[in-house]
């Protein structure tokens, strides 16, 4: 059928034959296109399975090559390299950053007193604020005591870079 329309023109029942032919041809074409897509998808899937199998075999081959025993000379070289890495790591962990002491201890003490006076002035208004201020003062005293013990440790061990 070339869809000329002659059959529909001469049909005594006035059936639109050309319209039906076009619809059926479109359905047949859609079915054919779906079959082509299915065939392409199947080919892609089979090629993917083949590729995965080849990669798996290549990976197993690499593992087998990697499992080859090292000679004594090679083992010595590997152990020497590992020792160098370990020594560098131990040197890196051995060096610690020293705690810097303030340049002017009198100014630090004056600042602490000023801050304490401010907290006491604001705390005198409310008992909860007074409790918070007292806790802050205790925490600062504890911190100062800890810093003093660290500085004493540095005085006892001046050449040591790592604290005991």
Mind explaining what this structure looks like?
The protein is mainly alpha-helical. The chain has five helices and no strands. The protein has helices at 6-10, 17-66, 72-94, 105-123, 127-156. α4 (105-123) runs antiparallel to α5 (127-156). The chain is elongated, with a radius of gyration of 44 Å. The protein starts with 5 loop residues before the first helix and ends in an 8-residue tail after the last helix.
How much of the sequence lies in strands comes to under 5%
Q: What order do the SSEs take from the amino end to the carboxyl end, as H and E?
A: HHHHH
* Total helical elements: 5
Which percent range fits the helix content?
Answer: over 70%
**Structure summary, number of beta strands:** 0
Model regions low in confidence, pLDDT < 50 over at least 5 residues = none
Query: Mind summarizing the main beta sheet?
Result: none
- Rg, alpha carbons: 44 Å
* Overall shape: elongated
Average pLDDT metric: 82
Instruction: Classify the secondary structure makeup into a structural class.
Output: mainly alpha
Give the helix/strand layout.
Blueprint: H1 6-10, H2 17-66, H3 72-94, H4 105-123, H5 127-156
Helix pairs in contact: 4-5
Short characterization:
With 164 residues, this protein is mainly alpha-helical. It has helices at residues 6-10, 17-66, 72-94, 105-123, 127-156.
């Amino acid at each position: 059928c070339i869809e000329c329309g002659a059959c529909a023109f001469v049909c005594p029942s006035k059936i639109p034959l050309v319209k039906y032919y076009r619809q059926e041809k479109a359905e047949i074409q859609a079915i054919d296109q779906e079959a082509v897509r299915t065939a392409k998808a199947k080919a892609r899937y089979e090629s993917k399975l083949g590729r995965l199998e080849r990669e798996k075999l290549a990976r197993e081959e690499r593992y087998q090559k990697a499992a080859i025993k090292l000679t004594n000379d090679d083992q010595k070289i590997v152990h020497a390299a590992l020792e160098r890495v370990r020594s560098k790591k131990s040197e890196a962990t051995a060096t610690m950053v020293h705690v810097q002491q303030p340049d002017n201890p009198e100014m630090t003490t004056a600042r602490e007193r000023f801050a304490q006076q401010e907290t006491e002035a604001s705390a005198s208004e409310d008992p909860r604020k007074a409790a918070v201020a007292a806790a802050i003062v205790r925490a600062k005293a504890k911190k100062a005591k800890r810093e003093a013990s660290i500085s004493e440790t540095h005085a006892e061990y001046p050449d040591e870079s790592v604290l005991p």
